Amino acid sequence: MRLITLALAALLLLIQYPLWLGKGGWLRVADLESQVAVAQKKNDELKSRNAKLDSEVRDLKDGTGAVEERARFELSMIKQNEIYIQILGKGQAQPQPQAAAATPNP
């Protein structure tokens, strides 16, 4: 009787091995599912970045508003007959006047 019990226990362990540690086992499936979740998260981030870049490209191609906004904020450009005012906070250094902004001679 004892021999049969040991044989059945050994067979049970042999059957369980592929279920847990085999190629299609639960541990492998859980690992692959976590890898898929990470890849999907990265894909979602890249899709949102691509959508943002696509809309920015369309704005730059179609309208002048986006080009004007970039010129103002990135290149500090102003329109003709427009006054530029900069407000400094406490502790900020006062910018040096440019040569073009010098007072004209009377």
From TrEMBL:
Any GO BP: FtsZ-dependent cytokinesis
Residues on Cytoplasmic side: 1-3
GO CC entries: cell division site; cell septum; plasma membrane
Family matches, as InterPro entries: Cell_div_FtsB (IPR023081), FtsL/DivIC (IPR007060)
Topology term for the membrane: Single-pass type II membrane protein
Topology feature Periplasmic, residues: 22-106
Keyword Calcium: no
Localization per record: Cell inner membrane
Positions in coiled-coil regions: 29-63
Pfam families: DivIC
Keyword Magnesium: no
Keywords: Cell cycle, Cell division, Cell inner membrane, Cell membrane, Coiled coil, Membrane, Transmembrane, Transmembrane helix
Subunit structure: Part of a complex composed of FtsB, FtsL and FtsQ.
Function: Essential cell division protein. May link together the upstream cell division proteins, which are predominantly cytoplasmic, with the downstream cell division proteins, which are predominantly periplasmic.
Protein family per UniProt: Belongs to the FtsB family.
PANTHER family associated with the record: CELL DIVISION PROTEIN FTSB
UniProt name for this protein: Cell division protein FtsB
